[in-house]
Write a structure and sequence with these properties.
The chain is mainly α and about 80 residues long. The protein has helices at about 1-10, 25-35, 40-45, and strands spanning about 55, 65-70. About 30% of the residues lie in helices and about 5% in strands. The chain has a two-stranded antiparallel ribbon. The longest helix has 10 residues, at about 1-10.
């Protein structure tokens, strides 16, 4: 949680200042953690993979794809602005 707390602090800084990061990165970090994804699996995650059942993950290197049900913290991921 310390890393996520640090990422949230950095995301709250003014854009293009020292130590700032994109505001969506803490959300992506937590979503990848909750779905037990490795880096490339997190980067290739799309909205099309989310449905009423959960998030359909696409595993790499011979692992089987699976569905991660959204419970608890996963529901706190803010909706996209349209």
């Amino acid at each position: 949680m310390a890393l996520l707390t640090f990422a949230l602090e950095c995301a709250g800084r003014k854009a293009r200042t020292e130590g700032s990061i994109a505001p969506y990165l803490p959300i992506v970090m937590e979503l990848g953690y909750l779905c037990r994804l490795c880096g490339i699996e997190t980067l290739t995650l799309t909205e099309a993979q989310a449905d009423d059942v959960g998030i359909r993950t696409q595993r790499r290197r011979g692992s089987r794809d699976n569905i991660v049900r959204c419970v608890g913290r996963c529901h706190r991921v803010p909706p996209r602005d349209h």
